[in-house]
TrEMBL record, chains A, B:
Name assigned to this protein: AMP-dependent synthetase
AMP-binding enzyme C-terminal domain ranges (all copies): 415-490
Gene3D superfamilies assigned: 3.30.300.30, N-terminal domain of ligase-like
UniProt entry keywords in alphabetical sequence: Fatty acid metabolism, Ligase, Lipid metabolism
Length: 509, 509
């Protein structure tokens, strides 16, 4: 049960089939359309290059890149040779990338040409810009790489950094077995087969594109790279490549719906495309519009980076096909039924706990956080929810962790609070998520200014953008006289959030 | 990764959905149509009954039964409680069943009412007739069973007896993990989902119905029990229950084709049913007729009981959909592409070797045979084959083991030889498989009579039927002056087979 199983089958059975179509608009010359045979050769060239560089098994190779064929190759090349891949969110600021590279102890850092200048200060023992530098200087074509000495399903394959309850993101260690089982289960429930065409509407750094690249390769599915999410461009690619399957957060599908409104002629993919929505609870209206305006099948997945991610899956049951559209959409807005092999329960305090072969091995170099997350042998999702006693479906009702999910990106409210607090004018701050039509949630900061100090909304936002990825900055700031606390001094976030979420459908607050 | 994962999900998500429809013609009253909730309750009643009987974890429970809802329940109940299920071929003679029960050391034997009289001599510490005796005397409804103390994916779940290179069948130990991975992989490649309806055209004792009952339950698929294979009855059930998926040997599909010829009106299931063919190489003509005369999708699987069984899978690729029917059928007659997670190679001597998470743990109480079968860390299939360097598909070209597969049943030629040799008139014997339109292969005995002795074909056949299951008896006997041997005294079976297979398509000889 290692990642090699997926690529080995692709190379054996789909040697001459179209494997990967790179984004034509890469800043480095795109990789020419690769059959899975050629893709596997390129994977070996990466491995032989890392061998020549002296990068040993178990060492970390960090990659900061937009979606690209090269990143896709590295998601296979690095773990298949017993090394650990660390895909880095391309939106992070230099300090943040620096933290990830340092905390993971990466010996190699590979960066996209567009990110090169911005990340020039980020150091690693070996640093390459993807494209010319790596094609000529790192990859070794025709050299047989050293095979992984002891392939082990429990070895860490990737470390994916995710914002959680702490200020700094934590590195989620996913093993080969985690990824293998997630891939098989995801493929089973979404009924993937070699007749599919997959479009990478999801960032590949994000839980390894949710693990889809692996099962797609294993089943010989053509994968089309999309560098940047854009509604019209998605429709164009669906049309051009005969796409049948995509994954993404609700914000992605809202963009597609907007683009469809001005699309000339029939929207492509009707009765052919199915989409998997995750990363935030989708509004019922989005679900219904996807079904009606696009004619695409809407399915939903719930999970976390810590669970590889698939925990539940929701699809309209055959028995429900005849229900009124709105009722179908309402049923689909729930997180879904636990995937095969996943056990869920709700704790007394209402938190969703999970057991599965896809639960993380641990947080990299964080034994205490790991023990806490896996207390009593269950993974603590930090989300509140309920299981329907009738059909076993999970509904997420409350996010316990101080995490805001905006446009599918996790943002730690504590991290944002830390940054705002570093502004000299700020005495107290609380950061919450408030509803947003397009992004699901957006970030709001409640600020108490220091006595005599002055600062306005734009000062605070600019300060955040200077120190953090732009998507982590609040979109609004409210100044308050004080922030209410409990007797023990704790801020009760749910109380702060309440007025903003009143009357909003599916208040995940 | 235990069998509980499948039934737990069925009970959680499909509590009120139709789970199992028993055969209406059971000799014991059939189990009423059971939702998966009810099915799970009955499974627990079996477990509580075994608890009360004092049957401990790791003990063997043998079941000799035609297909029935009760056998299906036991395939879950026994291994889910940490015990080991031993499904017994219902065609075996009392001596043969006795061997299986004794060799496995079963403490419980459950027999179908129809088999009760015939197997009256077969002893076990506890013996029950399925139906009234077990419903009232063994099963404990409403009693919570003792949970399995240490669920372990590497524990043996079932022991399935299979004829191999030795005279006596060997017990193949399949672990929970073997069965789990086989189920997931089978479900993935056959694209099973909750909209399917499955008909048990395959004997459930046969590698646990190839593992299908597990994944069907896990995905909430309605399972329709068929007690005895009959072409017209299969068509009737396909029509009545809206069946979409079935498995079986080529002989089953030939029976269906025969029945379709006299079926009144349109043959049911056109463009809806897909079938998985295995157990023997299907003739190209059968494939083509299934596609054309029935309009069912034909797919093929290759594997052995020792591999849970899925090793390869063959389905018409989307790119081949436009090929002429005959060429498509020819491509489909190959064993197929290794399933995800399966590694195959062909040894220097031409034998197909396999590595997979579905390879058996061992032969029960046969350490030498186990070591031999798993030499060098590869499972030795005993079959000769080639891998297409273009598309990676396996073709089985030669069966190395002295096993004859007739109508999907493995028969050890050595076992048949032993039995024939026990006839006082026989001096020498060689048993081979020869081509048969309906059964794929049929059994032929070449016999040298003892000097002065007399016996004719019917004597030899009757002698076999007296001592073995009927399907193991030769259908023809040829008397010879001598049987050619090598210098070391070995019979070269392939030479004996050659004249019969000359000109026969796909000579698996």
């Amino acid at each position: 049960m290692t990642i090699a199983d997926f690529l080995d089958r692709a190379e054996l059975g789909f040697r001459d089939s179209p494997g990967v179509v790179d984004e034509p608009q890469q800043p480095a010359p795109p990789v020419p359309v690769a059959s899975y045979g050629r893709f596997a050769e390129r994977v070996r060239a990466w491995q032989a290059g890392l061998d020549a560089l002296g990068v040993g098994e178990g060492e970390r190779v960090a990659v900061a890149s937009h979606n690209s064929a090269r990143l896709l190759e590295l998601l296979f090349a690095v773990p298949m040779s017993g090394r650990i891949c660390v895909p880095v969110n391309f939106r992070l600021k230099p300090e943040e990338v620096d933290y990830v590279v340092a905390q993971s102890g990466a010996s190699v850092l590979l960066v996209d040409p567009e990110l090169d200048a911005g990340l020039s200060e980020v150091k690693a023992p070996h640093r390459f810009v993807l494209g010319e530098q790596t094609e000529a200087g790192l990859m070794r074509f025709g050299t047989e790489p050293r095979p992984w000495s002891q392939p082990d399903e429990d070895a860490t394959a990737t470390i994916n950094y995710t914002s959680g309850t702490t200020a700094r993101p934590k590195g989620v260690q996913l093993t080969h077995r985690n990824i293998w089982v997630n891939g098989m289960t995801f493929g089973l429930h979404t009924r993937v087969w070699e007749g599919d065409v997959y479009l990478h509407t999801l960032p590949m750094f994000h839980c390894n594109g949710w693990g889809m690249p692996y099962v797609m390769a294993g089943l010989g599915v053509k994968q089309v790279v999309l560098r940047k999410v854009d509604g019209t461009e998605i429709l164009r690619r669906v049309d051009e490549h005969g796409v049948t399957l995509m994954c993404g957060a609700p914000a992605v599908w809202n963009m597609v719906l907007d683009a469809a409104a001005t699309w000339e002629g029939e929207v492509p993919g009707r009765d052919r495309v199915r989409i998997v929505c995750a990363g935030a609870p989708p509004p019922t209206r989005t679900i219904q519009r996807v079904q009606e305006e696009l004619g695409w099948e809407f399915t939903q997945l719930y999970g976390l980076t810590e669970t590889s991610p698939m925990l539940t899956f929701n699809r309209t049951r055959p028995a429900d096909a005849a229900l009124p559209a709105e009722e179908r959409a309402r049923k689909l807005s729930r997180a879904g039924l636990p995937a095969l092999g996943v056990k869920l329960k709700v704790s007394e305090s209402g938190e969703v706990l999970a057991r599965s072969n896809t639960v993380l091995d641990g947080y990299w170099d964080k034994p205490e956080e790991t023990a806490e997350a896996l207390e009593d042998g269950w993974f603590h999702t930090g989300d509140g929810g309920t299981l329907d006693p009738g059909d076993g479906h999970l509904t997420i009702s409350d996010r316990k962790k101080d995490v805001i999910i905006t446009g599918g990106e996790n943002v730690s409210s504590i991290e944002v609070e830390d940054t705002i607090f570093s502004h000299p004018a700020v005495a107290e701050v609380a950061v919450i998520g408030v509803p947003h039509e397009k992004w699901g949630e957006t970030i709001k900061a409640l600020v108490v200014l220091a006595e005599g100090a002055t600062a306005d909304e734009s000062d605070i936002i600019a300060h955040c953008k200077q120190h953090m990825a732009g998507y982590k900055a609040p979109t609004s700031v409210e100044f308050r006289e004080s922030i209410p606390r409990t007797a023990t001094g704790k801020i009760q976030k749910f109380k702060l959030r309440q007025p903003y979420w009143a009357g909003v459908e599916r208040g995940v607050n």
